[in-house]
């Protein structure tokens, strides 16, 4: 009886984790470049009362055995790197990645972070930076007093300076790809960090080396689908409720046992 209590409790804890992951997805439904996660579970150890195939008599064996599971645990949270919807904004510094790849961000401590958030801006020095003010790798800088900025699909950045008619190329974006992007570690602020699981970053211009192309004046939105998350929310809530009923039933059976005369 105590086994059923602990087993049901593990189910409640697992469903709570699922709801936590789902709520984070829903909270970031409007976050540019956000990639949703899903909770993955695995069963716990089994108490083997009788092994499958054990001899039950002369020339006979148990076809199935007798094993009793001990519950469930959260094995991992898997980040889903499917393409998010693209939204036309008309802002020349909004750049979306179509396909594989991440923008490479230079952190203040010299490390690199990676992001799909293409809502770029210019700082006081003319550098292309993200919303936190961290610059893109490569030292991409736009000169002052430009009339227009153009970003080609291959990442080439050209500007038209006041008084000139011919555009001037000032640099080219580079994107990072990974053997296992699901292994990247989320560090908040729309940024990810490479780990041993993701493998080392391989940088290449857009359209080369497996990297996708870029689109100017466009933002990649979150890949969260609210309807799917609401279904997960309901199913998780119902699963949690069923586990509480198991706890209640086990408690009632224990009470009946305690009241035996």
Q: Please, could you describe this protein's structure?
A:
With 261 residues, the protein is of the alpha+beta class. 23% of the residues lie in helices and 33% in strands. It is built from two helices and 21 strands. It has helices at 2-27, 226-258, and strands at 37-43, 46-50, 55-57, 60-61, 66-69, 72-79, 86-88, 95-98, 102-106, 112-115, 121-122, 128-129, 146-151, 156-161, 168-172, 175-177, 185-188, 191-193, 202-204, 213-216, 218-220. A four-stranded antiparallel beta sheet has the order 10-9-16-19, with no helix packed on it. It has a three-stranded antiparallel beta sheet with strand order 13-14-15, with no helix packed on it. A two-stranded antiparallel ribbon has the order 1-6. It starts with a helix and ends with a helix. The mean pLDDT is 91.
Key phrases:
261 residues, alpha+beta, 2 domains, elongated
What would you say about this model in short?
The chain has 261 residues and is of the alpha+beta class. The chain folds into 2 domains: 2-81 and 224-258, no CATH class; 86-220, no CATH class. Helices cover 23% and strands 33% of the residues.
